[in-house]
Amino acid sequence: MEPILSHLSFQIKENAIDSFMDEIKTPVTDPVFFSVGLPNKKLIPKKQLQAMTNMLFENDPSNLYNYCSSKGYDPFISTISAKETIAENFIMVTNGNTQGFDLVCRMLLNQKDSFAMEAYTYSIAHSAIHQYNLNAIEIPLQQDGMDMDVLEASIKKVPIKALYIIPNAQNPTGITISLEKRKRLIDLAYQYNFIIIEDDPYRELLFDERIPSLFELDPLKEKVIYLYSFSKIIAPAMRTGFILAHPVYIQKLEQFKQIQDACTSPINQMIINNLISSYVWPDLLEQQKNFYENRKKITQHFLINMHKKYGWLSSDPAGGLFYWVNVLDGDVLEWMKYAAASGVIFVPGKAFSLNDVTNTKIRICYAYCNDDEMMKGFERLEESFVKWKNNVQ
Amino acid sequence: MEPILSHLSFQIKENAIDSFMDEIKTPVTDPVFFSVGLPNKKLIPKKQLQAMTNMLFENDPSNLYNYCSSKGYDPFISTISAKETIAENFIMVTNGNTQGFDLVCRMLLNQKDSFAMEAYTYSIAHSAIHQYNLNAIEIPLQQDGMDMDVLEASIKKVPIKALYIIPNAQNPTGITISLEKRKRLIDLAYQYNFIIIEDDPYRELLFDERIPSLFELDPLKEKVIYLYSFSKIIAPAMRTGFILAHPVYIQKLEQFKQIQDACTSPINQMIINNLISSYVWPDLLEQQKNFYENRKKITQHFLINMHKKYGWLSSDPAGGLFYWVNVLDGDVLEWMKYAAASGVIFVPGKAFSLNDVTNTKIRICYAYCNDDEMMKGFERLEESFVKWKNNVQ
Fold first, then answer.
1. B249 vs A contacts (CB less than 8 Å)
2. Which of A19, A40, A49, A67 to mutate to test the interface with B (most CBs of B within 10 A)?
3. Which one-letter DSSP state was computed for residue B209?
4. Which residues make beta-bridge pairs with B345?
5. Which end of chain B is flanked by fewer CB atoms within 10 Å, N or C?
6. Is the pLDDT of residue B20 over 90?
7. Domains of chain A
8. What integer pLDDT is reported at residue B281 of this predicted model?
9. Can you tell me the mean pLDDT for A136-155?
10. What pLDDT score was predicted for residue A22?
11. How far apart are CA A146 and CA A148, in angstroms?
12. Nearest to B248 among A1, A46, A98 (CB)
């Protein structure tokens, strides 16, 4: 069979994380997944979601079962407007940041455009690179975020159309970009005329005070398109998030959203609207932050020990779900096989970069697994690392 | 402000139905909407949806709150597989047929491809025409469906890449394509190598026995991609449907779905899976069919009367939600203003064709409005029609 396909179909590739994970088989019956970048199950507000849903069915608001505007359910947009202190015409609801990013790409990008991003970054950006056959420009990360000198030098040589950035508790490195660099990035966007796509699902999971977003810092709101998702703080299954952008962009995005799926599930929008408007919500967020901060400390304790014993280097995430670890030499794809045999799974750094040649980095998600799995996972990491190193020598 | 946009952004246009409806203002406090192509509110299985949702929260299946595979929630795919008697690797879940159609277009179409469709048809097809700057080929409809001689003659002159068809109770005409023409269309697809996109949301709302779908009739399952939605028989707000296609296509569609929104809300998939597997489901469908058949008869009675008095011609829909009416002369866009002033809204035929020059046709949806609104709507249609005709002369 010779399928009939578009150019895009030939360019699109499987997600890099998935393709690495597809190959991993573990013989162990109780594997520990440091690979899964998901919120911890304990933190899902199950009772509240059930109560909100029942309240919704009982109240039976008009249009509960209907389509809503592609922009989103009006009262939900009002809530977002109040919480984000931005006018309603700057807001569109999405099915989470995956859709937000896809819609923004459809609106902005042509084949072969130049597109900058952090090296390393979430593989969603690489999907766009493949699909649109983009000229990908990876900008190195420093402790305080993207290297702005390298970025500017690069733009001077090759102008870019858009830049993708995860500003807070970045996936995979855990890095948060500083206020100074945020301001400089916006200046660059105005000076060299490109769009910043700000993907910010971890902002509520920062352990310290939040720095203003690039969108908040953008004086004219013309250069930053802001993506927010409730997947990390409520539940991925709700498939709900929003975009903040200049109304000129929101109008276009709304047209693409209408074509793409008419609207985000209005029932899910109503449930989330009720939940984030309820008096329990700040407490629920606080619980999450404390939980992840505790998890981070436990992981840090382990990683300091590994640094002493084996020289591992690691980030010091100021929030979010991830630790980024550099084991200095060897190919971690080899280690992964030993790790899987021992019953622990992580994601290799290669999954987060188009040009990673070092092969010494891994991402550990400390959020998802159960409390009793954490120490077991750490033991298996060390055990498999030692086996790998012994066998390599 | 000079926005940064893709080529697609310049090509995409507002939905034709919306742009006609945007202009309609009615001074009446109780307008009757024959324009709204939605299921009747009375038929939404509210109690069952609430019960299924609560059962779900109580049972708390693992992964209830998580992402699921982009292909869909496994038990839901199993249910679809059993009901459609097709292997699971031919199935992908979508957020309804809007998304199904968009994903298929992304997979199949390049700019300027040739694309055939019924004249008249649902405006979703025209959105694709604009977005991909396609060579649009409109094939006239006969009482038993698309004119196959015209189609074949057209293909001989200009080969097509894909064809969009609503086989049952077509929107807007209510026409159902005959078995003979279905078979011939599939023969043509193999002979001239094009894909048939079969959009079938009304199949459960046929008053008589269902003819096999084009997908069922396709011997090798290589030429038909089948789109199904639960929006018309459960609720649009659930945003759930599915695609049936050859596994070669399903694999590609899954990649696009992953990029587009990761997955359809797993909670909504689980609720619908429970509902359509429950013993009440066949009764609920039967109720819907009976309700719409009764509505059709009431509308038919009115339209026979209008035929006698004013010569109106109308279709005889074998199911679905729509009557297609031809008032023979004048421009119905003018009538719309009188109708809105009288408090009744319909959609002009122009919204369903790229090249409609007659301007004498309208679509009446007999499904959505309340029982007590039906007769009022008919009175206002006649009253406004008479006023229009008197003023024109």
1. 3
2. A67
3. P
4. B33
5. C
6. no
7. 7-44+283-392 (3.90.1150.10), 60-277 (3.40.640.10)
8. 95
9. 97
10. 79
11. 6
12. A1
